[in-house]
Amino acid sequence: MVADLLLEAAGLMFIGMVSVFTFLFMLVLLLQLMSRVIQRHFPVKMTEKPTTIDTKATTVSPAIVAAISAAVHQYRQKQ
């Protein structure tokens, strides 16, 4: 009786694992096919001029650096 239940459970487990594996395999194939179709019909256009970062906007003024340094120094002195 217990052996019959274990065999039935193993059979159900095998069927479940095969169905999940088949579904995932088909999903991967479908996604690859969709990727190829989209790349073929809608290619990515490269820009002619690369974008540059404005260095003036990313620099920090020396007064702000001094204020941050003083705050960090004061914080470390209290500990």
What would you note in describing this structure?
The protein has 79 residues and is mostly helical. The protein has a domain at 1-44. It is built from 3 helices and no strands. It is flat, with a radius of gyration of 31 Å. The mean pLDDT is 89.
In short:
The chain is built from 3 helices and no strands. With 79 residues, the protein is an all-alpha fold.
Which descriptors apply to this entry?
79 residues, mainly alpha, 3 helices, transmembrane
Shape: flat
| Estimated share of beta-strand residues | under 5%
The averaged pLDDT comes out at 89
- Fraction of residues in H or I helices: over 70%
The topology string of helices and strands comes to HHH
List the helices and strands and how they pair.
Layout (H helix, E strand, L loop, with lengths): L1 H40 L13 H4 L3 H17 L1
